[in-house]
Amino acid sequence: MAIKFGRPIEMRDAPRRPTALASTPLDLAIRPRRNRKAEWARRLVRENVLTTNDLIWPMFVVDGNNMRTPITSMPGVDRLTVDQAVRDAERAMKLDIPCIALFPYTEPSLRDENGSEALNPNNLVCQSVRAIKKEFPELGVLCDVALDPFTSHGHDGLIEDGKILNDETVAVLVRQALVQAEAGCDIIAPSDMMDGRVGAIREALDEAGFLDVQIMSYAAKYASAFYGPFRDAIGSAKTLTGDKRTYQMDSANSDEALREVELDITEGADMVMVKPGMPYLDIVRRVKDTFSMPTFVYQVSGEYAMIAAAANNGWIDGDRAMMESLLGFKRAGADGILTYFALKAAEKIKANS
Ligand SMILES: NCc1[nH]cc(CCC(=O)O)c1CC(=O)O
Ligand SMILES: [Mg+2]
């Protein structure tokens, strides 16, 4: 059944005002309101639908045992120890969420200039992938490729004299992707915005025999204020020096997003992503219309936090704002959405079907 809203105001048993009765009807042949007159009629003409198949659920993993630690700036989202991530993977499975995404909170002692923990085949992400794929081989697992959870400076790449090095970083990202593929990751998702990394990763994956490992590139990723709570979650907010504007895109640009997406497709991306989501719906639409590729959108941490905080204050209806924002991505042309609301939204979809 469709989502129920309150009883339509037209149906309340109030007497009609005599003035309303007295007015002459407008001579209108076309009355768009007819198609909205009842829930069944609205369902009949509905153009877009959100299903659980549209959802990718991002999770944060942390070292330890049997613990869930709340992230203050993301109310309702916890850092999970690996065993708890496996439990949430099971919840995703049961709700028909096709895929989860894993992000690590790396112990500060393991972070260094070069993000070398990213290459440890036994790092938190790899441990989580193995544990989850062992119990739930049918669940898709996506891993982010970038160095920021592992570097002491919080940047996605290697730094020299205050500059982010492109080609040297790509060489490390290739090794990070291989380590994740070896752990059993299904989708490699480079989020670093270095030039040429998709092609380099594709070539290395193929050479190593990982022909079926997909690449979802964060192709049009903007330098955004909306990543704040994510940086709290992975513990890079306090250490990040400067900003990421020499590699992430300028939010003023739209044509540039098409050029970035085109390059990643040419280099071998199977799926492309736009990020953040709500302030960039126009980019989602242009990318989908231009390339007809599987197009994803990331409803990022700050978008989640805004809705969650307003809802917790009683300022908006949180569930309705959540569903409306997710449907908006579908309407803009997205084939799927990475969202911290995935579990809640899937529960709601199931309850209403
Ligand atoms: N490269 C790391 C990365 N991967 C996903 C996000 C943001 C996700 C979110 O805000 O929910 C970021 C943060 C950043 O680029 O600083
Ligand atoms: Mg690029």
Q: What's the Cα radius of gyration?
A: 23 Å
**What is the 3D shape?**
globular
Which range does the strand content fall in? 15-25%
Determine the fraction of residues in helical runs and give it as a percent range.
25-40%
DSSP summary: helix tally: 12
Helix/strand/pairing category:
alpha/beta
Strand order of the largest sheet: 1-4-5-8-9-10-11-12
Largest beta-sheet details: 8 strands, parallel, barrel
Low-confidence stretches: none
Please count the beta strands (DSSP E, at least 2 residues each).
Answer: 12
Order of helices and strands: HHEEEHEHEEEHEHEHHEHEHHEH
Chemical compounds bound to the protein: the ligand NCc1[nH]cc(CCC(=O)O)c1CC(=O)O, magnesium ion
Mean pLDDT: 95
What is the rounded distance between the termini?
Answer: 5 Å
The oligomeric state of the chains shown is single chain
What does this structure look like?
The chain is of the alpha/beta class and 353 residues long. Helices cover 37% and strands 16% of the residues. It is built from twelve helices and twelve strands. It has helices at 18-22, 39-44, 82-94, 124-135, 166-183, 197-207, 228-233, 255-267, 281-291, 301-312, 318-331, 342-351, and strands spanning 55-61, 68-70, 78-80, 99-104, 140-145, 159-160, 163-164, 187-190, 214-221, 271-275, 295-299, 336-339. The strands form two sheets. It has an eight-stranded parallel barrel, surrounded by nine helices. A two-stranded antiparallel ribbon has the order 6-7. Strand 8 (187-190), helix 6 (197-207) and strand 9 form a beta-alpha-beta unit. Helix 5 (166-183) crosses helix 6. The termini are close together. The model has no long low-confidence stretch (mean pLDDT 95). The ligand NCc1[nH]cc(CCC(=O)O)c1CC(=O)O is lined by residues 144, 146, 148, 156, 191-192, 227, 230-231, 244, 300-301. Homooctamer. Pfam families: ALAD. Keywords: Heme biosynthesis, Lyase, Porphyrin biosynthesis.
